[in-house]
Amino acid sequence: MRGCRNIAIVLLLAAVAGGAWVWQRYDSFANQPIAGLQAGDAVVVESGDSFARVLRKLRGQGVRNGSDIEWRLLARRMDVAARLKVGEYALRPGMTPLDLLRDMRNGRVVQHQVTIVEGWNIRQVRAALAKAEPLQHETANMDDAALMKALGHPGEHPEGRFLPETYAYSRGDSDLDVLKRAYDAMDKALADAWDRRAADNPLQTPYEALILASVVEKETGVADERPQIAGVFARRLKAGMLLQTDPTVIYGMGAAYDGNIRKRDLLADTPYNTYTRVGLPPTPISMPGRQALEAAANPAGGDALFFVAVGDGSGRHVFSRSVSEHNAAVAAYLQQLRQRRTAGKEKAKGTAAQ
Questions:
Q1: Residues near 136 by Cβ (< 8 Å), separated by ≥ 6?
Q2: Are residues 217 and 320 in the same domain?
Q3: Statement to judge: residues 95 and 127 lie in one domain
Q4: Which single residue of 36, 183, 199, 265 has CA 20 to 30 Å from 336?
């Protein structure tokens, strides 16, 4: 009897020791960094994938840590199989099986980014989205009208409708997904700016504010000048003066613009030529940022009716109240421009002589 008891004790101790060994190995597997991972490695979980299929994908990626049984036990303990989220998961150097399965359970997918730049037009926005990977491209064969219809805004002109920002997206998202978010963001930013508009603002509708903001965006990249630029245009609109802004003319020229704007271009009448037509152009000419929207809603006060670039490469402008002041500023700008060109040629000659 005593011998049977001793045997039972020995077997129990062996089982405990064996269990402890198994647990130590399992715990070591769960917390041991996965070998061989490189920055940029990832595994994609697709709709309908079982954990067994995901494990095969990991093996195909060169993951050799642990046995299949250990992976399945860990996944079961973490309830991953029942909560497996579709998406792309980073295989980061140094991460453990526990880290990876936690990411999959929590849906911590890889985030990619695409940026809409302030001042871009709709062609540039669509070109950037077409190059973005791994974004799905649903709009490739759509013209602008079809695009706006697909976004749920049929009949709207797309120019100016998408807020310049950096947008994060996941594998499986499409360009339409990004554009919907950018449209909604612009809609909200415009509404917020319009709600805060100055009481004496001459603009009649939020869309007019969007148009003016798009012009301000193209006229200056200097943030603190935007309200001043908007102020000049607001005063011109109140006075019934021509806006006379080159960016609208360039936009109206479309593909004919070769980098230079000539006198004949300023005289050629188009809906966007603010040298020949009074008031705002019929649509925005670019994607304005938040600061340009705010400037259009709250133009700076003052009495300046003209502005011209300083010409020193700073991007800043000289603001004038009268035609005579403006003509003097233009003459100074042209002189500055000639001096810079002469200095550039002399520098090029000196470099070539070395």
A1: 172, 173, 174, 175
A2: yes
A3: no
A4: 265
Q: How many CB atoms lie within 10 A of CB 347?
A: 10
Structural element, H or E, at residue 114: strand 112-115
Residue type at position 336 = Q
First-to-last C-alpha distance (Å) of the chain: 105
- Following CA atoms 111, 116, 118, 120 in sequence, which dihedral angle do they give, to the nearest 10 degrees? 170
| Residue numbers of the domain that contains 151 | 112-190
Cα separation, 106 vs 103, whole angstroms: 5
CA angle (146 as vertex; 142, 151 as ends), nearest 5: 110
Q: Indicate whether 118 and 184 sit together in one domain.
A: yes
Each residue of 67-76: pLDDT tens digit? 999 999 999 9
Residues of the chain whose pLDDT is less than 70? 1-27, 344, 346-354
In a domain, 40, yes or no: yes
The CATH number of the domain holding residue 44 is: 3.30.1490
Residue 6 lies in a domain: no
Domain boundary among 160, 190, 220: 190
Distance CA 10, CA 256 (A): 93
Longest CA–CA span in the chain (Å) reads 121
Same domain, 69 and 48: yes
Does residue 78 sit in the same domain as residue 62? Answer: yes
Report the number of distinct structural domains present in the chain. 3
Beta-carbon neighbour count of residue 217 at 10 Å? 28
Answering whether pTM is above 0.90, one says: no
Over the stretch 102-114, which tens digit does the pLDDT of each residue have?
Answer: 999 999 999 999 9
CA distance 305 to 235: 7
Give the DSSP letter string of 10-61.
HHHHHHHHHHHHHHHHHHHHHHSPPTT--TT-EEEEPTT--HHHHHHHHHHT
**CA neighbours closer than 13 Å in the CB half-sphere of residue 215:** 28
